[in-house]
Amino acid sequence: MRNIRPQFKNILLNKEVIDVNQDEMGVPGKRIFHNETLDIWLRPILPKINDKLKKEPITSFAIAFLNRLKSGPIDIKVKLKELGLTSTYLFRDLFDHIDLGFMNSEDNIKISIPSTGIRLIKAQIKVKNK
Fold first, then answer.
1. Are 101 and 86 in contact (CB under 8 A)?
2. 34-78 tens-digit pLDDT
3. DSSP per-residue string spanning 61-125
4. Strands of 118-125's sheet, edge to edge?
5. CA-to-CA distance for 26 and 93, rounded, in angstroms?
6. Which end of the chain, N or C, is less packed with Cβ atoms under 10 Å?
7. What is the enclosing helix (H) or strand (E) of 127?
8. How many independent structural domains does the chain possess?
9. Considering only CA atoms, which of 7, 41, 43, 4 is closest in space to residue 23?
10. Are 93 and 110 in contact (CB under 8 A)?
11. Domain presence at residue 130
C-alpha cells in the first residue's frame, strides 16, 4: 500500500464501498441482468423498514452496473421497478460520492458506464422521521 498510486488507494479505501461489502444483512448480490455488453447486480443492504401493507420489510440496495465492452462507454436507462425497486430511494454514486436524488419505482435511472468499468449505486430506502 505504500507504493500504490493515489487513485487506486482511494478505490481500495472507499468507506462507502467497504460499507456495502461489509453490510450486516450479509445477503449476497445477485446478477439480475446479463448480456454481451452489460451485467447488473443487485444486493439488499441496510437500512430496511417494515411495510405493514406488504407484510415484509423493504430494504435498501446496492446496484452494480458492469460494462463488458472494451470499445467504449455505454449509456443505459432502466425503470427502477424493472430492477425490483418498489419504494422511494435516495440514489448515491459510491465511487464519485454524489447524491443522484430521490427516485421511486416509476422513475428511470440513467447511467453511463465507462469501458470495462463499473458504476456502483446505493439506493437507500426513504426512512420516515419519528
1. no
2. 999 999 999 999 998 887 776 778 899 999 999 999 999 999 999
3. EEEEEEE--SS--EEEEEEGGGGT--S-EEEEETTTTEEEEEE-TTSEEEEEE-TT-EEEEEEEE
4. 30-34, 38-51, 56-67, 118-125, 89-93, 98-103
5. 21
6. C
7. none
8. 1
9. 43
10. no
11. no
The residue type of 84 is G
Closest by Cα among 48, 82, 35, 50 to 63: 82
Taking the CB of residue 102, how many other CB atoms lie within 10 A of it?
12
Q: Please say whether the beta carbons of 14 and 7 come within 8 A.
A: no
Cell of 66: 458492469
Domain with 31 in it: 6-125
111 in Cβ contact with 100 (< 8 Å)? no
Residues 6+ apart with CB under 8 A from 72: 115
pTM over 0.85? The answer is: yes
What CATH code is carried by the domain that includes residue 29? 2.60.40.1180
How does pLDDT run across 98-117, given as a tens digit for each residue?
999 999 999 999 999 999 99
Closest C-alpha among 103, 110, 83, 94 to residue 21 = 94
Q: Check the CA dihedral 22-24-28-29 and report its sign.
A: negative
